[in-house]
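Predict the 3D structure for this chain.
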Amino acid sequence: MAQAQNISFPIDTRSGPRTAEVVCQRRGSGEPLVLLHGIGHHLQAWDPVAGLLAAEREVIAIDLPGFGRSPALPEGTAYDLPGTAAALRSLFEALGLDRPHVAGNSLGGLLALQLGHEKLVRSVTALSPAGFWTEAERRYAFTVLRGLRVGARTLPPRAVDRIARSAAGRTALSGAIYARPGRRSAEAVVAETRAMREATGFESVIGAGRSVLFMHDITELPVTIAWGSRDRVLLRRQGIRAKQVIPGARLVRLPGCGHVPMNDDPALVARVILDTSR
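Done. Predicted structure below.
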């Protein structure tokens, strides 16, 4: 198991230069591949596929600022797309990464596409990326996410521990994001419920996301957009819109997968990411 590292790096804010901090895990060898999770999640969302990816890549999974074990961005830093992409660019420099491959899920998929638009990466794999919604679809997705947040903050930790011991309980806690929640371990469900409860960046990201639409074509690098056929958060028809915005992208269906597909079909997701980064 890879050890977590705390990486500090400088960023510019409205109040002047500040220091940001991100927690990451590195494993494997080969061309670097950065993994970006979704809102309210943490880097362990990638655990089901990280070992498969590390057979061919140096895998760097990160807790985005304000999520997992990473503190929030310094005061005066915007959580909008350009601001977060700028922070990730500074993180890449601190890690010694020159245009890594990147894969992201949900919020992480949107950030991965922004990094591709800014030509900061070599390839992009976006799994159910945010930003291709209608206004009604955005409100629906945010309602689901806020429901998960309220549930995580309302249930006492001991109750979460008890509920997660059964497959039915894991379905109740995480069935909105996984098509096969019973496959997720009790420990993983408890940890990601805690991550949602303690996510200091949640409200800032939700606030910034109200006006987000991704409208940039991405050329000169490989882009794959993959969507779970059983995604209950961002409906799969949004993948068609993503293909219209980025005509050169490869659009892939992930049969039987939910919004966070890495746990539902690790082999398929790993293959899609590695195919894009070759």
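The mean pLDDT is 96.
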